[in-house]
Amino acid sequence: MTETPAPTVKCLVWDLDNTLWRGTLLEDADVVPFERVREVITALDGRGVLQSVASRNDHDHAWPVLERLGLADYFVLPQIGWGAKSASVRAIADRLGFAHRTIAFVDDSPVERAEVARALPEVRLYTEADVASLPERPEFSPAVVTADSRQRRLMYRAGFERDASREGFTGPDEEFLRTLDLEVVVARAGEADLTRVEELTLRTSQMNATGVHYDDRALRGLLADPAHEVLVVAMSDRFGPHGAVGIVLLERRRRVWHLKLLATSCRVVSLGAGSTLLTWLTDQAARAGAHLVADFRRTDRNRMMEIAYRFAGFAPADCACAAELPAPTEEGVERFHLVPTAKPAPTALRLTSPDLAAVAPRA
């Protein structure tokens, strides 16, 4: 296990005039992309780096040009108008739920870059001369690229459609969730899942209990240990698949189950993924007659995870069962404890999961 490294870029925001294309649209309607721009856009898209636009232009004029150039589909949440670039970049980050340090902005104008730097100092800034080299830079090179990475843009777009449907729904949230035909699948991870599991330990932040990165070697060690469960969580609904959205790293002992890591994508927070997993784990532990002890380490982003634990009934560990566990190896890790009780099956979604309580723990 290692500390989370400096994050890779999750979203690159493009200026248009003299950055993505040559010239100024107001002066020349027949603009063409700079050399290698299309190659850069497709390369980053294939790695799961989302891309958007922040441009001072008329949207009804600029967007058809992007469509004509065959580039419009690569951009999510485009901000094309006459406001400050920093406001556009902020709006994109807020809508995606991304920390500013995972956002990059490329613009030919030093004035525009300076304005963004003043308002959003954590956003990474690049010039038009940097564009061709972006795919070679480490911050645009995720440690792993999975099937989910390659379809990340499509999954986010489905999410925006889902959100639009929710805004138009007048009933309670639980009723809306039923209309989605949600399915959650919890499965034991295999070799093919490890890259996505590692990616989730890197990319999740708001719903990550510790912020600890488990690399491939550490995950393989847990996978080979009969006392540990490495579980991957996938979701889908009528709008399409969400892909792999969560991980559970669990050590099962006879008296206590040690939840070393629970992490879910921020994309599925509103769908109740975290609470569904905690409820399921609570029921499984109750059936096995074991207490639950969960590791938690505060970060600047995971307050929501602490709330989820406390809402599920976890409290600072003061039970003798916690003494059976080795001391945390990571600085700042606290432990929350729960005496579990049986829980009913979810009613707003279909849950498919292994029966952990049916398998006797090793120790």
Automatic annotation (TrEMBL):
InterPro entries for this protein: Acyl_CoA_acyltransferase, FkbH_domain, HAD-like_sf, HAD_sf, HAD_SF_ppase_IIIC
Source organism of this protein record: Actinosynnema mirum (strain ATCC 29888 / DSM 43827 / JCM 3225 / NBRC 14064 / NCIMB 13271 / NRRL B-12336 / IMRU 3971 / 101)
One family name in Pfam for this protein: Hydrolase
This protein's name: FkbH like protein
